[in-house]
Design a protein that fits this description.
- This is Aldehyde dehydrogenase.
- Keywords: Oxidoreductase.
- Belongs to the aldehyde dehydrogenase family.
- By secondary structure, the protein is α/β, with parallel strands linked by helices.
- It contains 15 helices and 20 strands.
- The chain has 2 domains: about 230 residues, Aldehyde Dehydrogenase, Chain A, domain 1 (3-Layer(aba) Sandwich); about 190 residues, Aldehyde Dehydrogenase, Chain A, domain 2 (3-Layer(aba) Sandwich).
- Helix 3 crosses helix 4 and helix 3 runs antiparallel to helix 6.
- It starts with a helix and ends with a helix.
């Protein structure tokens, strides 16, 4: 690991990656490789947890193509020197900011969207002029192998490399001196990464998770709200960091909400046989999810297939914040439904817990929307929709508090892997003497006028 990191450091110090044409060429090469090997990528992820080509393209590959195209189009602008105002004390002179790459970057990907969550940060890192080492999750082993094959066989390892492995390999990597670490995963592992980075003062971006609420008010368009919410919750069998973790429904519409939700699940036909659903990633996670289901509170679903690692879409009702299912992020196809009649109380309940990665508000009343958005702190979210905010790269995507540090997507990703160097440039034909010795009352008077 040390030799690999050192080789990338030497390559970075050659200044090759600082050339905009080089960055664009590498991004074009990556897009070409992905397009030529889409079938390989589809087959690998299907072997891991039965994710169909349709969902793999729409939720992973297409987002990567978008990121690459946007970076190629805008990297020259993002990298350009930017003039800023010069304050009175530094006149005559000019001030500007130069974006520069941080250096050798480590990207630790997550298993639930293995391509998108490993390669999207890599695209941002390349656009910013860094060298890249990706450590994919070892849980979806076939996607890990596919990425290693495509990248390691086509790119100079001193610039871009995939290192496979588990905890031991990740630990070894975290012992190295990187210039940037980007981690996507759980809060407990995020803390380990953060501690390792702190020992070497390495800047980090942490994309974590949390219990993201969806609030269904009495005055929303209930039918379309349920349709969008059910899609967002059971996409990828609930194994989505920004999926609605639980729903808080106004008591006036709770029963209708439950009926519509059950009907929507039936109409959606979440079946692996129809390429419309996925497996739980492994036996350990399936057992964890089973333990969260209180059989006395099942409204619909609750069945599972141990041999095939499948859990059907499940709704639990009559849930309170004290239930076991409400203690940690679910990360699976279980939707707890809580009831409320006082919006202020439910806002306080949410605020009393760690800040969520996402929050979704379903309402037609502007005052209610404004109240929730103003009072609850969360990474990002949507009004009258769920999950889809991640598709807009003009907004930074990231968490706050325990749900994450930093953001990426679009220019925000470029910034995550860049340092913005501030420069003051002064002419030599004039030099005011106010700051120089000897200090006098007259000079101090002028300094007060200039600085305030």
């Amino acid at each position: 690991m040390e030799e690999i990191v050192e080789a990338q450091k030497q390559f970075f110090n050659s200044n090759t990656t600082k050339d905009i044409a080089f960055r664009i060429g590498q991004l074009q090469k990556l897009e070409s490789i992905l397009r030529a090997n889409e079938e390989l990528l589809h087959q690998a992820i299907y072997k891991d947890f039965k994710k169909s080509a349709f969902e793999n393209y729409t939720t992973e590959i297409s987002l990567l193509y978008h990121d690459i195209k946007e970076a190629i189009k805008r990297v020259k602008k993002w990298s350009a020197q930017k003039r800023v105002r010069t304050n009175l004390a530094n006149l005559p002179g000019k001030s500007y900011i130069i974006p520069e790459p941080l250096g050798v970057s480590l990207i630790i990907g997550a298993w639930n969207y293995p391509y998108q969550l490993s390669l999207a940060p890599a695209i941002a890192a390349i656009a910013a002029g860094n060298t890249v080492i990706i450590k994919p999750s070892e849980l979806p082993i076939n996607t890990s192998k596919a990425m290693a094959k495509l990248i390691n066989e086509n790119f100079d390892p001193n610039f871009f490399k995939v290192i496979e492995g588990g905890v031991a390999e990740t630990t070894d990597l975290l012992n190295q001196k990187f210039d940037k670490i980007f981690f996507t995963g759980s809060v407990p592992v995020g803390k380990i990464v953060y501690q390792a980075a702190a020992k070497k003062l390495i800047p980090v971006t942490l994309e974590l998770g949390g219990k993201s609420p969806a609030i269904i008010t009495a005055n929303c368009d209930l039918k379309i709200s349920v349709k969008r919410l059910i899609w967002a919750k059971y996409l990828n069998a609930g194994q989505t960091c920004i999926a609605p973790d639980y729903v808080v429904v106004h008591e006036k519409v709770k029963e209708e909400f439950l009926k519509l939700a059950k009907k929507e699940i039936a109409q959606s036909k979440f079946l692996i046989e129809e390429d419309n659903y996925v497996q739980i990633i492994n036996d350990k996670n399936l057992q964890r999810l089973i333990a969260l289901i209180d059989k006395d509170k099942i409204y619909t679903g609750g069945e599972y297939d141990l041999e095939n690692r499948i859990m059907e879409p499940t709704i639990l009702t009559n849930i309170t914040f004290e239930d076991k299912v409400m203690q940690d992020e679910i990360f699976g196809p279980i939707l707890p439904v809580l009831e409320y009649n006082d919006l202020n109380k439910i806002i306080q309940e949410i605020k009393a817990r760690p800040k969520p990665l996402s929050c979704y508000v379903f309402t037609s009343v502007k005052k209610i929307k404004r109240k929730i958005l103003d009072e609850i702190s969360f990474g990002g979210g949507a009004v009258n929709d769920a999950v889809m905010h991640i598709a807009n790269s003009n907004m930074g995507f990231g968490g706050v508090g325990e749900s994450g540090i930093g953001s990426y997507h679009g220019e925000y990703g470029f910034r995550a892997f860049s340092h913005y160097k501030g420069i003051l440039e002064k002419p030599t034909w004039i030099e005011p003497n106010f700051k120089y010795h000897p200090h006098t009352k007259s000079k101090l008077k002028w300094i007060k006028r200039l600085i305030g």
